[in-house]
């Protein structure tokens, strides 16, 4: 077995930024925007914060994807021959695709809200009775998506933990023997 510290760190640090940033944004940034005294500034303040975070988030996602690809390449033998690793790798790939789609859709909704400018709102993702209907619909969609992104990226953290457990020498041996026995 060889060490893959750099790619593993890229995987983990990128995923930590993606998960942590999305969770902090949902709880902290969107929550704090509702505390701005001028209702017409609340949405704008949330958008300014998300616009500042977007390049960092993109970099974190890219670093995670490079690390994930590197880890998959260095573990291709285990993926092929250790029972359970291929299935968990497929599940992780599906979760990654879902997280990417949810993040892209959230960013699209955020850009729509950014274009809305200064409109009255209860918060970044909470319309009030004076919020224009199209903006309110977008806010309501983003209110759901703000929890989906950390939910799916959190599931990726769990999958990374599972993959770490599957690399224990006893697990590798057990998985290879099970694969051979099932053929």
Automatic annotation (TrEMBL):
It comes from the Bacteria. The chain crosses the membrane at residues 12-33. Keywords: Membrane, Transmembrane, Transmembrane helix. This is ABC-type Mn/Zn transport systems, ATPase component. It comes from Planobispora rosea.
